[in-house]
Structure prediction request, 304 residues.
Amino acid sequence: MAKTSENRKKGKNRLRRKEAMYGYLFTLPWLIGFLALFLRPLITSLKFAFSNVAFTPDGVKTTFVGWENFISPFRDNIHFMSQYFVPGVSSFWYEASLVCIFSLFIAILLNQKFRGRTFARAMFFLPVIIASGVVIQVLRYNGLDTDLETENSFVFSSDGLAILLRSIGFPEKIRTVFEQISNRIFDIVWMSGIQIILYLSGLQSIPQSEYEAAQIEGATAWECFWKITWVRVSPMTLVVVIYSIIDSFTNVSNILIQWTYEKYVNNDLGVSSAMGWLLCSIAFVVLIVAGGLISRHVFYVNED
Prediction:
C-alpha cells in the first residue's frame, strides 16, 4: 500500500515537471524576442526618462536631469492631475473590472447549447482579429476611427438611460455609474474577445457530473453558479484579471496614454518616456495587489 502511494506521488511529480517544461518551452519564443528586440529599446527609454533629449546633426544627445521629467507634467500644468492623470489611472481598473464581469457573463451564455453557437462565439472574437496588425491599419485609413466614434456616441449614448434612471428616482452616484457603463458598452465588447475565450475554456473543463449531483441534492442555478462554476473558473479568473489589467493599461483610447503619445510625437521623448515608466510602475503595483488578493481565493483541482 505504501509502495503504491509512493509510486503515485512520483508519477505526480513527473507530471508536474513535464508540465513545467512545457511552460518554459511556450515562453521561450517570447523570452528570445524580448532579449533580441525589446531589451535594448527598454533600456534606452529608461535612460530617456531621466534625461533631457535633444536632436542634433550629430545624433541624439542626452543630458541627465534626474526626476525632472517625472515632476514637470504635474508642476507645469495645474490641470494635468485632474484632466489627465486621475481620469486616466482610474479608468484602468474600472475598465478592467467591467471587461472581466462582462466576459464571464457572455462566456456562460455561449457555453449553453443553442443554434448558431459557433457563429456567436466567432462574432465576439472578431474584434480581436480586426484589431490586430494590418487589418486595423487598413480600416483606420478608411475612416474607422471617425465612424466608430460617431456611432458610439449615437447608438450607445447615455442620455436616454439618464432620463429613465432620473425619473425612477435613482441616486446621482448610481446614475453616474450606469451612465458610464452604458457609454463604454462598445469598448467593453471590443476588448472582451480573449477573456471570453479564456472563460469558455474554463467552463468547458467543468465535469457535467458535478452539476447533475448538485441538482439531485436540490441546488438552485444560483447556488450551482457560486458553489461550482465560480469555484471551478477561479484559476481562469486570475488569468483573465491579469490579462485585462495589462490590456487596459495599453489601451490607446485612454486619455493619459494619448497625452503620452502626443509628447512622443512632439519629440518630447524625456517626458514621454518618464510617463510611460510611471504607468508601467502603476500597472506593476496593481498587478501585484490584484494577483495577491485573487490568488487567495483560487481553487486548484489538482492540489494535494
About this structure: Residues 143-156 have pLDDT under 50 and may be disordered. The first strand starts at residue 51 and ends at 56.
